[in-house]
Amino acid sequence: HYGGMMAVSLHPDFSNNQLVYLAFVNSTYTLSVIRFRLSGSLAEDVEEIFTSNQFCIGTRIVWQDEDHFFLSFGVGGSPKPEPGPQDLSDPRGKIFRLHANGSIPDDNPSFTDMNALSGIWSYGHRDPQGLFYDTSTGTLYSSEHGPMGGDEINIIEKGGNFGWPLFSYGLNYDNTPVSDMSEQEAAEKTIMPIKYWTKDFRLAPGNLFMPQASNFTNWNNSFLIGGLTYQQLVRYNPENDLTEVVLPKAGRVRDIAQLPSGNLVLLIEQNSPSAGFTGRIVKITP
Predict the structure, then answer these.
(1) 10: nearest Cα among 45, 48, 39, 36
(2) What is d(CA 121, CA 102) in angstroms, rounded to the nearest whole number?
(3) Is the peptide bond before 273 cis (omega within 30 degrees of 0)?
(4) From its phi and psi, is residue 199 left (phi > 0), alpha (psi between -120 and 50) or beta?
(5) Residue 180 C-beta-side C-alpha neighbours within 13 Å
(6) Contacts (Cβ under 8 Å, ≥6 apart) of 137
(7) Is the pTM of this model over 0.90?
(8) Dist CA 125 CA 250 (whole Å)
(9) What is the pLDDT of residues 210-251, one digit of tens each?
């Protein structure tokens, strides 16, 4: 049931260049990114700017500036972790940073001791389906699916190893430990999440967004996360470490965006919160 269209993103200068970017699982079941120029209702100058040799279960595109975007590449595994995230010759479990034309920036990290795949910005991820780039601070955040528990929010650092599957706060789907590495060892060898949840609160994050100067004054500068498993909108406030369900029974929230008015819109998956619902975009106000 995985695959299909995963991300659509407009170039930051879309109003002038009309460039649209799509990330999807192609006919060979690997990840592709294409871009095209939107002319009325027609896609012109279509070109593939990224392709992989491995299957991807989740991805997101966010822009750093007009010439650089980040692309996440998820991996799963049931009952045990799939290989790839610690292997720099494998695209799985990575976040890439690319030029707008798909080429590799000269200031990307260099992994001199390993056979690094071009374009890798960070590695050791599981399934980072949410990315948010805070332009005010220049910080890239990810929300990441754990296995059974262990969902995370991370601050992404250049060249960083985020630990999967060397360490996890979650369990394998057969209820066994992911590894025997201790939390202390993991903190010495990998970059730890700024927030994690145990299996007592399984979020299954479908996205990550931070309202700023929105009409939801209490939500501004907190993270909003679409919870897939329990079909809810969740707020996490990093200032007081508070997690709260702000919109229960919303359906499987795949994306969140802020309108110029300051209100928010949610992209809700088909057949949620129950069978018969169509996929829809819902505007929410305070």
Answers:
(1) 36
(2) 14
(3) yes
(4) alpha
(5) 0
(6) none
(7) yes
(8) 27
(9) 999 999 999 999 999 999 999 999 999 999 999 999 999 999
Cα separations in angstroms, 189 against 124, 178, 186, 261, 264: 11, 16, 5, 44, 39
Sorted by sequence, the CB contacts under 8 Å of residue 114 that are 6+ apart come out as 88, 89
User: In what helix (H) or strand (E) does residue 94 lie, and over which residues does it extend?
Assistant: strand 94-99
At 1, the pLDDT band (50, 70, 90 cuts) reads very low
CB atoms inside a 10 Å sphere around CB 19:
17
Q: What is the pLDDT of residue 122?
A: 97
Rounded CA-CA distance 235/223 in Å is 6
Cα distances (Å, whole numbers) of residue 57 to 107, 126, 280 = 28, 10, 22
| Beta-strand relationship, 152-155 and 120-123 | unpaired
Query: For residues 236 and 132, what is the distance between their CA atoms, to the nearest angstrom?
Result: 14
Interatomic CA distance for residues 28 and 77, integer angstroms: 20
Q: Dump pLDDT digits (tens) for 138-150.
A: 999 999 999 999 9
Structure tokens at 173: 């789907």
- For the stretch 77-119, pLDDT in tens is 999 999 999 999 999 999 999 999 999 999 999 987 666 778 9
Condensed to tens digits (0 to 9), the pLDDT of residues 153-181 reads 999 999 999 999 999 999 999 999 999 99
- CA 255/CA 225 separation, integer angstroms: 9
